[in-house]
Amino acid sequence: GIPHELLDRVEKMTKEHYKKCMEQRFKESIKNRGLDSVQAEVDDVDWESTFYLKHLPVSNISDVPDLDDEYRTLMREFAGKIEKLSEELLDLLCENL
Question: Mind listing the UniProt keywords for this protein, alphabetically (predicted)?
Fold first, then answer.
């Protein structure tokens, strides 16, 4: 499986990444438009921000903007563990066919 410590680190760093991104977007909206326009836009805001990481056949993690090096390294490690776990599960499924 995937070590709990790694899962905890991925969860923590992902939450930190999203928090940092949302704070920055909020600060930019206030700085550029003022508080009056922010209230008017609340209903039209997409509160979820996402990014797509692809590990195979070619990783795109270097192309995703706004990720720090520590987070990129952690996600590479996590993707490698998921790949290994997937292969083990497929092997077990094949044995039972």
Answer: Oxidoreductase
Alpha carbon distance 92, 76 (integer Å): 25
**70 with 42: CB under 8 angstroms?**
no
- Per-residue pLDDT of the chain (97 residues), as tens digits, is 899 999 999 999 988 888 887 766 665 655 555 545 544 544 554 545 666 777 888 888 888 877 889 989 998 999 999 999 999 999 999 987 7
- Write the DSSP string, the chain: ---HHHHHHHHHHHHHHHHHHHHHHHHHHHHHHHHHHHHHHGGG-----------SSS--GGGSTT--HHHHHHHHHHHHHHHHHHHHHHHHHHHT-
Query: Which tokens is 72 given?
Result: 């990129």
Our count of domains for the chain comes to 1
Domain that holds residue 29: 4-95
